[in-house]
Amino acid sequence: MNTCSSATSPALTGPDTPFAVVDVHRTRRNIARLRARAERLGVTLRPHVKTAKSLDAAALLHGGTPGPVTVSTLAEAEAFADAGHTDITYAVGIAPHRLPRVIALLRRGVTLRVLLDSTEQATFIAAAAREARTGLPALIEIDCDGHRGGLRPDAPGLPGIGRILHEAGCLDGVLTHAGESYSARTAGERRLAADEERDAAVSAAERLRAAGLPVRTVSVGSTPTAHAAEDLTGVTELRAGNYVFFDLVMAGLGVCALDDLALSVVVTVIGHRPEYGWIVTDGGWMAMSRDRGTAAQAQDQGYGLVTDLQGTLIPGLVMTAASQEHGTLTARDGGALPDLPIGTRLRILPNHACATAAQHHGYHVVDGSRDTGTPPAIEAFWPRVTGW
């Protein structure tokens, strides 16, 4: 981690724009909130590092000690293994060409679980494990809501897949992800999604056990359901990733407040088009991503809400359009535009933290709890893991 001394710390007025900013105070608060919930529910918290993709951010997850994590790429798995993490779940369906990298990590002493949902995958995993003469722990993906991959809990082929894995010493358990919870618009809908997610995973595990197969891990989680679950009986671990930074989609669902959003992008005003009611910035979709996740919510937030450099919302100002390197700010409902001269720096709160973070090489870190009335000092730079 690159840190800045208090005497030399640049402010957000220093780096060239656009650039990503993380408020470490909000990040710590978000992490503590879900950690406390997992402890109350009696499950292991296995954070998903795909949002931040940062070893420095991950150092906050388990009190500075490497702990269990979930990854979405083998590049993440390798980077986190290099940093001392030995308990990793790779939560994307496995393909044969990735197995050499998986086996290389296993031989380094890393417990790296892979994910599958088919007989074909189970067969080539079992064959690879026998050839390598090493355990290759695997989780069977369970479809709890039709969102993406996985087997339904009552799928006829589930025990057979489990048996192929078990006979090769590879069966670890089951994993599910309530992707449709991102459309759950009330607290009651999120609790129902959390219950359905739990029930799907637990019932699949019980079917495997009834077939005489061992199930060690029963893994559930998404950011909405992780914050809504009240009973995780039968579950061993909880996963979530977006919660570290949160974003406007999560705020729109009611999972968090705007004051919890830890990620923003600093942009500069570069033009005005008063005839159209536009303020133009140098932060387009290359800085924010094309994600429009709030478009389907009750309040469409465009490409992001706008704050000043201190992080105070500018009422009614929204980033409503983006081209590659240009962002367009307009006043909601045709209201008056604020006076923001060319050269003014602003911060944009993103729709989807994962997508916006992916546009940047790293984060300039500030501490929003230190309100000095001036643009906050940059206290560190956190690089991101990139690639697949």
From TrEMBL:
GO MF term list: D-serine ammonia-lyase activity
Domain D-serine dehydratase-like: 262-367
Pfam family, one: D-ser_dehydrat
Protein name in UniProt: DSD1 family PLP-dependent enzyme
Keyword hit for Lyase: yes
CDD domains membership: PLPDE_III_DSD_D-TA_like_1 (cd06812)
Cross-referenced SUPFAM superfamilies: PLP-binding barrel
Key words, A-Z: Lyase
Listed InterPro entries: Ala_racemase_N, D-amino_acid_metab_enzyme, D-ser_dehydrat-like_dom, D-ser_dehydrat-like_sf, PLP-binding_barrel
UniProt similarity note: Belongs to the DSD1 family.
BP term (GO), one: D-serine catabolic process
